[in-house]
Amino acid sequence: MSENKVERVLTGKVVSNSRDKTIAVEIERKVRHPIYKKYIKRSTKVHAHDANNECGLGDTVRVVEAKPFSKTKCWALLEVLEKSVAID
C-alpha cells in the first residue's frame, strides 16, 4: 500500500531575516469566536529555510512543510509571491 502524503503549504509575511538561510514567517488566520460569532485574527510564527537568502522584510511568501533542518526549523521556502517596497 502506498501512502499519499498531503503537503502543507502556508502563505505569510516575512517578519525576520537576520539569521543566515533562515526566515521567520508570520501566518495570519481568522477564527470564529464560539460565543460572540465574530471573527478574530490569530497568528503563528514559523521558521523556514531560505537557501539563497532571497527574502527581505515584509515579503509575502509561500512555505511548505519539510523534514526538520534544525530544532525549530521544519518549513522550506517554496516561492516569493510579492516583494516588499524598500524604504530608503
Automatic annotation (TrEMBL):
<keyword id="KW-0694">RNA-binding</keyword>
<dbReference type="GO" id="GO:0003735">
    <property type="term" value="F:structural constituent of ribosome"/>
</dbReference>
<dbReference type="GO" id="GO:0019843">
    <property type="term" value="F:rRNA binding"/>
</dbReference>
<comment type="subunit">
    <text>Part of the 30S ribosomal subunit.</text>
</comment>
<comment type="similarity">
    <text>Belongs to the universal ribosomal protein uS17 family.</text>
</comment>
<protein>
    <recommendedName>
        <fullName>Small ribosomal subunit protein uS17</fullName>
    </recommendedName>
</protein>
<comment type="function">
    <text>One of the primary rRNA binding proteins, it binds specifically to the 5'-end of 16S ribosomal RNA.</text>
</comment>
<dbReference type="InterPro" id="IPR000266">
    <property type="entry name" value="Ribosomal_uS17"/>
</dbReference>
<dbReference type="Pfam" id="PF00366">
    <property type="entry name" value="Ribosomal_S17"/>
</dbReference>
<keyword id="KW-0687">Ribonucleoprotein</keyword>
<dbReference type="GO" id="GO:0022627">
    <property type="term" value="C:cytosolic small ribosomal subunit"/>
</dbReference>
<dbReference type="InterPro" id="IPR012340">
    <property type="entry name" value="NA-bd_OB-fold"/>
</dbReference>
<dbReference type="InterPro" id="IPR019984">
    <property type="entry name" value="Ribosomal_uS17_bact/chlr"/>
</dbReference>
<keyword id="KW-0689">Ribosomal protein</keyword>
<keyword id="KW-0699">rRNA-binding</keyword>
<dbReference type="GO" id="GO:0006412">
    <property type="term" value="P:translation"/>
</dbReference>
